[in-house]
Amino acid sequence: MDVVLSRSPQRRARLVQWTIASGVYVGAATLLITGVGQGWMNTSALMLWLAFVFAVLAAGYAALRSGWTERFRDPSVTVWQLSMGVLAVNWGYLICGPMRTSALFPIMVIFAFGAFTLRWRQIAYLTVLAVSSLIAAVVLRYIFPSWVPARGQVPPLRLDINNVLMLVVVLPALAAIAARLSGMRRKLRNQREALSRALAEVERLAVSDELTGIANRRATRVVLEREVAMSSREGMPFCVAILDIDHFKRVNDTLGHAAGDDVLKAFARHASAQLRSFDTLGRWGGEEFVLLIHGNKECICRVMERIRHAVADACLATCQVTFSAGVAQHRRDETAEQLLARADAALYEAKHSGRNRDVMADA
Predict the structure, then answer these.
(1) Average pLDDT for residues 206-230, to the nearest whole number?
(2) What is the residue-averaged pLDDT of the chain?
(3) How many domains does the chain have?
(4) Domain boundary among 163, 198, 233
(5) Residue 317: its pLDDT value, please?
(6) Same-domain status, 182 and 320
(7) 272: domain range?
(8) What is the CATH number of the domain that holds 319?
(9) Is 230 left (phi over 0), alpha (psi -120 to 50) or beta?
(10) Portion of the chain with pLDDT greater than 90, in percent
(11) Quick one: average pLDDT of 55-81?
């Protein structure tokens, strides 16, 4: 197989197509040869047709197997191969006598091959070539009747048998093409599903913090900007809290960075469990988190109290974890930067007044 079809996967695939086409040629030639003994095929006309087919197959194999065609945009030289096939089919129609209808069956294989790679202009060209060459064959049959055997009638059973045999030649090739198309569709579907999963993962990573799985700084910022715009436009109250885990550096220094990561993940998990579906908790950076709550200061105080109890009740990395928070309620026409600045100032005050507490901005 390596000698005949090459070890190159691309070249081998092109030669496999050539092999399928060759099988159709050989099967059709066998049926035409049997027509000589039955009186509806002229021997000299058949010899010319066979010489043409052999030359086309030999030239195609040599060009594909040597790799000479790989210099072209279409290494399979599909248009040339199918054009030669169209000419061979209609030439067979010209010389077939009363069995000429079955000689057109291989045209289905030719256009099925074209479905793989041809553009619509190339398919249109092949269509014009097929129709025009068939018309030319019909005209030649009536202008030069001596090219066609004199016998004009064939027993119906013989005609039916010939049609069945031609289908036996053509259908395996069509089945092979259909199987390849099915494989290509399955591969395309798998690639599309893999791409969808990859895109979903990219989107998730773009808005999620890799360590904790909650919203990252960028996604939190987008939500914050949206809430600020809505609050300024419609007067809907919302609050921002900046949470900072107390003495987090001590956890890293005494228990290690892996334990510190476990604390961050557990803190995000327990805090998120206390929120409503329309509230947002995002990791702002390091051990800092930003909480966005729909409602006034009293509402966010209740949420903060639930978070504080949930974190205190959990043993995070074998140590008790507390946090300080600065809270600010948005004022109409206040920018996101101004709102965060007030919350950050309140957090600074919470840290320097004993930690493990919430401080309201401008209280």
Answers:
(1) 91
(2) 87
(3) 2
(4) 198
(5) 58
(6) no
(7) 217-360
(8) 3.30.70.270
(9) alpha
(10) 41
(11) 92
Report the candidate in 134, 156, 157 with the shortest Cα–Cα distance to residue 86: 134
Q: What are phi and psi of 290, to 5 degrees?
A: -120, 130
**What is the Cα 345 distance to its own chain's centre?**
49
Decide: pTM greater than 0.70: no
Residues 292 and 322 in one domain: yes
**How many CB atoms are located within 10 Å of the residue 91 CB?**
20
Instruction: Report the catalytic residues.
Output: 287
Considering the domain architecture, whether residues 263 and 188 belong to the same structural domain is answered as no
In a domain, 310, yes or no: yes
Residue 57 counted as domain residue: yes
* Integer angstrom CA distances of residue 354 from 211, 310, 324: 29, 20, 9
Q: Please write the tens of the pLDDT for every residue from 108-143.
A: 888 888 877 788 899 899 999 999 999 998 898 888
- Burial label for 3, CB within 10 Å (0-12, 13-18, 19+), is exposed
Give the C-alpha distances (Å, rounded to integers) separating 5 from 8, 57, 345.
Answer: 8, 14, 75
Residue where one domain finishes, among candidates 170, 198, 226: 198
Q: Which tokens in the block code for residue 345?
A: 């100032």
Residue 151 has pLDDT above 60, yes or no: no
